[in-house]
Amino acid sequence: MSNDTKRPPQTHEIEIDAPPEAVWKAISTGEGLTRWYAEEARVEPRAGGENWVSWGEGQEVGNQNLAWEAGKRLKVGHPPAEVSNPWKAIVIDFEIETRGGRTLLKLVQSGLPAGADWDSMDEGTKVGWEMFLFALKFYLEHHAGKPRRTILRYWSSPKPAAETFAALQGLLGIAADDLRAGARYAATTASGEKIAGHIVAVEPGHLLVASVDELGDALVSLTVHATKEGAYVNFIVGTFGLPEARYDEAKARWSQLLQQAG
Questions:
Q1: 3-class DSSP state for residue 161?
Q2: pTM score, whole prediction
Q3: How far apart are CA 254 and CA 237, in angstroms?
Q4: Closest CA to 200 of 218, 216, 215
Q5: pLDDT tens, 52-104?
Q6: Which one, of 31, 38, 34, lies nearest residue 54 by Cα?
């Protein structure tokens, strides 16, 4: 695949109030990745080593560490000789810097093909990385060192992205006036559960990240992106340190709530 068939790289940056060593551990170890990104992960700590993540059966991604500069840079993908399809051409490059006592994480995704057939993937990975980086920031600033357990669902919607997002907002019961980063919200979900917390990030129609006090300062993260058939939804509730019984109860309630989304 020649360079002229690839679209421009995506670039994402986020400042995190945590030392660079903590950010490096979160992006470069299997344990760290499961606390903000994947359900399962394993990383061999060297250039050329395995970098494998999974969100469940059929959603595994196996890569290699193309570059490994401990504490500074991690580049993940497939060596050019192994690129047999467009998926394998995607490369993720993480760089860590310090800025005014905080850590700056820069992420660049490259290699995705140009052309309309890949527009949905480009949009989906763009908003997905935004969601995951806010999840990383939340984990390190609020729950550093704690294991994460999730309640998650991924599904296709036949409705357009904006309509799908509005339906999810209604499912959570969060008022439109509260959809502002930093705003405090109080809501009642479609199943009648009272929830409250802070809006961490929002991009109407595409992205919502919010804390939930009632689940031990959990993080609800959702993305919606357009597809040819309608839209695709990622919905993740990340909990930290909940006792087993409380987690099981919350998982049952929220799983039932998400089934109402179709």
A1: helix
A2: 0.95
A3: 9
A4: 218
A5: 999 988 889 999 999 999 999 999 999 886 677 777 789 999 999 998 889 99
A6: 38
Tracing tokens 């087993």 back to the chain, one arrives at 244
At what angle are helices 20-28 and 119-142 packed, to 10 degrees?
130
Among 194, 190, 145, which Cα is nearest to 32's? 145
Indicate the SS3 state at residue 234.
Answer: strand
Residue where the block lists tokens 């080593």: 49
The residue with tokens 């509260």 is 178
From the list 234, 58, 221, the residue with the least C-alpha distance to 155 is 234
Q: How far apart are the first and last CA of the chain?
A: 38
- Cβ atoms of 170 and 257 within 8 Å: the answer is no
Q: What is the DSSP letter of 180?
A: S
Please give the chain's pLDDT, 262 residues, in tens. Answer: 344 588 999 999 999 999 999 999 999 999 999 999 999 999 999 999 999 999 988 889 999 999 999 999 999 999 886 677 777 789 999 999 998 889 999 999 999 999 898 999 999 999 999 999 999 999 999 999 999 999 999 999 999 999 999 999 999 999 999 999 999 999 999 999 999 999 999 999 999 999 999 999 999 999 999 999 999 999 999 999 999 999 999 999 999 999 998 7
Element (H, E) at 213: none
What does 31-62 look like in DSSP terms, one character per residue? HHHTTTT-SEEEE-SSTT-EEEEESSTT-EEE
Q: DSSP letter for 67, please.
A: E
Neighbours of 202 (CB within 10 A): 19
Predicted pLDDT of residue 262: 72
